[in-house]
């Protein structure tokens, strides 16, 4: 009996060992080679250019074993066009506040499960539960910016205190503008005394004529890296995202920030998950990863946009946190104007922008 019991015990132990080995194996990889947490093998991310450092992508890959396929766009219009043309091509993309509602209405994005994003708790109240997505059903805020003016006084000798000053003849061929129709046309409308969200056809025609008058002063349109022309000395003025001005100041401390008399335009970008995304859980894991305070602060070292993460802000260099190009004073924030969804009226902006750009 003792021998028979030993053989039975040995067999049982062998079976148990096999079960444990199988369990360990399944915890690392599923039958399809995906992680046991169901994240899958890859994640397809579509983002603004110069908006997420390679080091963060690598850390996510190392932590999860998920390969990140990363591609970029230069405008919301480009993002929307590619998203419309290829459903299922991307698992995660970025959408500015004013285009979120149209994307929801057109069924382009799907709800996000905030249960998979515990780091959401670090986001400041003023950046969540916005009118364009109450309850953050579809969006998680990433970063934002305003549109101040950067000037190099070594090159520009005329006084600039407002958007309207960009039309001064002394600035011929000296300005780099964002290649962004809503921000730039919004700026032009504000110089005319209108809202940056104006949809009156007569006002848009007026804005078109005024922008055409600005073109002799415009050396280039650049949303990817407008600071480059400022740093090289090819232009003396940049109308750009605030962080680009701050980064230019790192290279050229003489560059000054002008908060225009007309009041700033502000916009905020959000993570959204496209309809048909093949790797939704990996997308949510990635959102949670970059919302970790340490990772969020690391992102702001390379791309110091307005950071909505309360704990990350404690880790960001004072040069950026105290820089008015990125974080305008409280009195300025009271005057900022947010861009809004224009509905079908966006076609007016498309037409005006196209006609202006084709005049180059």
Q: Report the end-to-end length measured between terminal Cα atoms.
A: 97 Å
The beta-strand count equals 12
The major β-sheet equals: 7 strands, mixed
And the CATH topology of the largest domain? Answer: D-Maltodextrin-Binding Protein, domain 2
Classify the helix fraction into a percent range.
Answer: 25-40%
State the oligomer: single chain
Q: DSSP strand (E) fraction?
A: 15-25%
Low-confidence segments, ≥5 residues, pLDDT <50?
A: 1-36
What's the helix count?
14
- Report the C-alpha radius of gyration, rounded: 25 Å
How many structural domains can be distinguished in the coordinates?
A: 2
Order of helices and strands: HEHEHEHEEEEHHEHEHEEHHHHHEH
CATH homologous group name of the largest domain = Periplasmic binding protein-like II
Structural class, please?
A: alpha/beta
Under CATH at level 1, the class of the largest domain stands as: Alpha Beta
User: Which shape, going by the Cα principal axes?
Assistant: globular
Looking at the overall shape, the CATH architecture of the largest domain is 3-Layer(aba) Sandwich
User: Taking all residues together, what is the mean pLDDT?
Assistant: 90
InterPro entries: SBP (IPR006059), Sperm_putr-bd (IPR001188)
Protein name: Spermidine/putrescine ABC transporter substrate-binding protein
Organism: Cohnella pontilimi
Subcellular location: Periplasm
